[in-house]
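sry for the spam today, last one i promise. struct tokens for design, 570 residues
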């Protein structure tokens, strides 16, 4: 009984477990998406592509209509206008793909080319292997003639529609143009190294500009000048129209009105030049004169060689009669339009008028000396002179060197004189000083060499004590007034001591206004002590103050008993 019950229960359980159950299908998973289509397409046609999905159970399905296709940019050589439908236009290459259900096909590169033609591509590099951008690659012969492209930053180029034997030209700014031959039988890769693309030589550098033109022009005429540029490679170029010409001042005897075009007016001379780039031509002096006439020039000086300003120089007879000029501060004059035998008159206030005959056969120089018309002051005799260092720099000197007094004996001959200086402490390296007097204008030259190595080589030394000395040199200009002469000296007052570096003073007072006063005094016996009796020895002073090497070289040697021989300056 129990066994029967157990059998019934088992049967009921088995019946309950199987009641109402139905089998179900497994879920399919997309595992792959593949694209099919041509890799070459002719320009101007349509092409069909397809996409096929593969699932986890191995089944496949065409999903061309459901897929998303790229590219769709109509500016490209090939683009999709519908599901799997592509339109081609110009030559080139495009990478196409399709997406569906989270999967994207592998990419397919499609060339858009006429049948039988190919892509030619490659990279342009320099000798170091770096890519060269901006190189123009052109087909200049063969199938594809006229095709061109320019390399980008990667140096890559690609030309589409090339076939057979072609000629390729490579060119770029800064490189010499090069031509290469190639045979294109497939989608070839031709890489070019620009070893042969040698950089061109640098542009020639402007080295000079020369000027050409006449050196004489008649008044009222026009004249043509030219400028030629010369370059580092030996080439020349006419740069007349590109140059800046001088002068342009219309008040001058000759001036430029345009590029190289000059107009002359009255007589005279002008220095002309032209500038181009960073160069200026050599200067050319042009005389504006009637044919057959010349310039007469020179200087007017006084009896002692000084320039005479304000002197009137006139042509009073001969060719150029009536022409005149007045000297400036340099005493120079110039008269234009003179020729042959002429007579000149030179006159100036305070100077005697002179008549001078000369023959002018070229652009000649005639210098003239004039004499003062003023009565010459009598300055011969013995004077007491006081030299006072300039207020502007006297504080640089010790008090004993600021004001010094000495005796001056003057021997006069007409307008010139010699002056001998003396004092118990004075040491001279020139036996006398020279000077001149014109009217009441007094000039006295104190020997020395102002400006040598930034200081003076004085020839007048005054010993202050056994270890110090002062010296001075320069030019005194003053006015004679009875028994006194007041003036100023332009030059140096210097001070030395035993600690002074060899050849250089301890301090210098250099100025144009040292005070000098001369007063007449009774004649007395002049003294000229030996150099070693007061103050420095001969050798010591030589190390403290150099002796000038002007005209006094020989004189100083003769007076070596009174002072040191000059130091030789190398």
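last one done:
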């Amino acid at each position: 009984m129990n066994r029967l019950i157990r059998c019934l229960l088992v049967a009921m359980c088995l019946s309950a477990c199987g009641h109402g159950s139905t089998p179900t299908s497994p879920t399919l998973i997309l595992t792959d998406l593949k694209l099919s289509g041509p890799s070459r397409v002719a320009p101007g046609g349509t092409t069909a592509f397809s996409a096929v999905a593969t699932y986890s159970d191995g089944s496949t399905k065409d999903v061309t209509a459901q897929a998303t296709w790229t590219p769709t940019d109509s500016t490209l050589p090939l683009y999709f206008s519908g599901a799997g439908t592509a339109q081609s236009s110009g030559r080139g290459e495009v990478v196409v793909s399709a997406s569906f259900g989270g999967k994207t096909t592998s990419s397919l590169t499609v060339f858009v080319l006429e049948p039988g033609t190919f892509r030619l591509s490659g990279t342009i590099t320099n000798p170091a292997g770096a890519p060269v951008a901006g190189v123009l690659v052109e087909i200049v012969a063969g199938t594809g003639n006229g095709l061109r492209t320019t390399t980008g930053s990667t140096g890559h180029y690609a030309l589409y529609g090339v076939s057979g034997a072609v000629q390729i030209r490579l060119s770029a700014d800064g490189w010499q143009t090069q031509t290469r031959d190639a045979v294109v039988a497939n989608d070839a890769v031709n890489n070019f190294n620009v070893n042969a693309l040698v950089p061109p030589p640098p542009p020639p550098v402007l080295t000079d500009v020369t000027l050409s033109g006449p050196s004489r022009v008649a008044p009222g005429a026009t004249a043509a000048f030219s400028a030629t540029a010369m370059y580092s490679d030996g080439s020349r170029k006419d740069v007349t129209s590109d140059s800046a010409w001088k002068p342009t001042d219309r008040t001058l005897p000759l001036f430029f009105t345009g590029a190289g075009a000059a107009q002359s007016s009255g007589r005279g001379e002008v220095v002309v030049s032209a500038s181009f780039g960073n160069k200026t031509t050599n200067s050319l002096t042009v005389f504006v004169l009637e044919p057959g006439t010349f310039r007469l020039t020179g200087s007017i000086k006084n009896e002692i060689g000084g320039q005479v300003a304000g002197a009137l120089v006139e042509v009073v007879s001969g060719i150029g009669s009536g022409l005149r000029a007045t000297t400036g501060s340099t005493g120079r004059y110039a008269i234009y339009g003179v020729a042959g035998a002429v007579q000149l008159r030179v006159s100036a206030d305070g100077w005697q008028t002179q008549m001078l005959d000369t023959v002018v056969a070229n652009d000649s120089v005639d210098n003239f000396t004039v004499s003062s018309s003023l009565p010459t002051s009598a300055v011969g005799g013995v004077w007491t002179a006081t030299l006072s260092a300039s207020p502007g720099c006297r504080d640089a000197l010790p008090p004993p060197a600021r004001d010094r007094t000495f005796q001056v004996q003057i021997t006069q001959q007409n307008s010139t004189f010699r002056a001998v200086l003396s004092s118990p402490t004075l040491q001279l390296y020139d036996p006398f000083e020279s000077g001149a007097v014109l009217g009441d204008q007094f000039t006295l030259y104190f020997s020395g060499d102002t400006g040598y190595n930034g200081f003076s080589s004085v020839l007048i030394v005054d010993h202050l004590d056994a270890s110090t000395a002062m010296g001075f040199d320069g030019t005194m200009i003053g006015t004679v007034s009875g028994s006194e002469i007041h003036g100023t000296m332009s030059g140096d007052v210097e001070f030395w001591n035993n600690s002074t570096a060899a050849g250089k003073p301890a301090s210098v007072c250099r100025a144009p206004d040292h005070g000098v006063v001369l007063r007449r005094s009774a004649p007395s016996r002049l003294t000229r002590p030996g150099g070693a009796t007061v103050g420095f020895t001969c050798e010591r002073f030589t190390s403290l103050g150099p002796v000038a090497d002007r005209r006094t070289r020989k004189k100083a040697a003769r007076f070596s008993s009174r002072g040191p021989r000059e130091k030789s300056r190398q």
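The CA atoms of residues 20 and 536 lie 147 Å apart. ok im logging off now
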